[in-house]
Amino acid sequence: MPAEVRAKAPVVTASAPCQDSRTPVIVSLLQTASQLEWWPAQISQAHLLAFASLVFYHHPVNKDARAAAALRSTTTGMLTKTHGLSHLDRAVLALLLTERWKAKLDPDNEGYLQELQAMVGPEVAWWAQYLGRIAHLLGVLHPTSFLGVYAPRVTLTARVSHSLGSKGRKTGIKLLIELQSDSPLTRPIHIEKLAHDIEKVGKKKNWIQGYGKKIDVE
Q1: What are the two backbone dihedrals, phi and then psi, of residue 6, each rounded to the nearest 5 degrees?
Q2: Cβ of 70: how many Cβ atoms within 10 Å?
Q3: Residues 180, 194: Cα–Cα separation, whole Å
Q4: How confident is the model at residue 84, as a pLDDT?
Q5: Residue 7, pLDDT score
Q6: Beta partners for 52?
Q7: Cα torsion at 205, 207, 210, 215 (round to 10°)?
Q8: 8 A C-beta contact, residue 30 and residue 133
Q9: Starting from the edge strand earliest in sequence, which strands make up the sheet with 170-179, in order?
Q10: 3-state secondary structure string, the chain?
Q11: How confident is the model at residue 199, as a pLDDT?
């Protein structure tokens, strides 16, 4: 991202302390998995950079509380005192970070999540859900050490397909996961589970107010 853009994006400045050599690699993986013709302009490159910087921020939190902590992080957590963040910035980042941890929320937090989804609209809310699930995959495959100076264990490539579904007539996202290393974490049983978790976001029952895209992962 150009220096002048960084300077104008408070969400980037706020997450800068968490950036390291892994951040641009994470951003690149998120982009190749999502930058399609349907991508909503409201989720900016600044949001992706901030999200990539904070992918592991809540890892020290108790496992059952990570999603809730992530959900509240932009209003009562680490970004509470950050000046210049719009309501959209806070909502988008909260939705991305919450889905990254893929955990159930208690009723109060679930209600707050739905309020944020209503604020940003179904299109942005669904894409945040999809992108958060991609980040979940990356987090599982690379635990806390993640990418470091090493190559990622997977590459991700998304494209628009008009031949999805059992009859090959549906339009949606075709996501290709290619393994780049031989690790216990990349065994078929693990990859298949993670792929299924991503495909679930594309099921109509998980669309948001009627908006969503079918997803096929291979």
Answers
A1: -55, -40
A2: 25
A3: 16
A4: 85
A5: 60
A6: none
A7: -100
A8: no
A9: 154-164, 170-179, 214-217
A10: CCHHHHHHCHHHHHHHHHCCCCHHHHHHHHHHCCCCCCCCCCCCHHHHHHHHHCCCCCCCCCHHHHHHHHHHCCCCCCCCCCCCCCHHHHHHHHHHHHHHCCCCCCHHHHHHHHHHHHHHCHHHHHHHHHHHHHHHHHHHHCCCCCCCCCCCCEEEEEEEEEEECCCCCEEEEEEEEEECCCCHHHCHHHHHHHHHHHHHHCCHHHCECCECCEEEEC
A11: 96
CB 51 within 8 A of CB 13: no
pLDDT along the chain (218 residues), means of 10: 62 88 88 93 94 92 94 90 89 97 93 97 97 92 60 87 90 91 71 92 96 95
Cα three-residue angle 146-173-116, rounded to 5 degrees = 70
Whole-model pTM? 0.91
The residue type found at 141 is L
User: Which residues does 104 contact at the CB level (< 8 Å), separation at least 6?
Assistant: 67
What pLDDT does 149 receive? 52
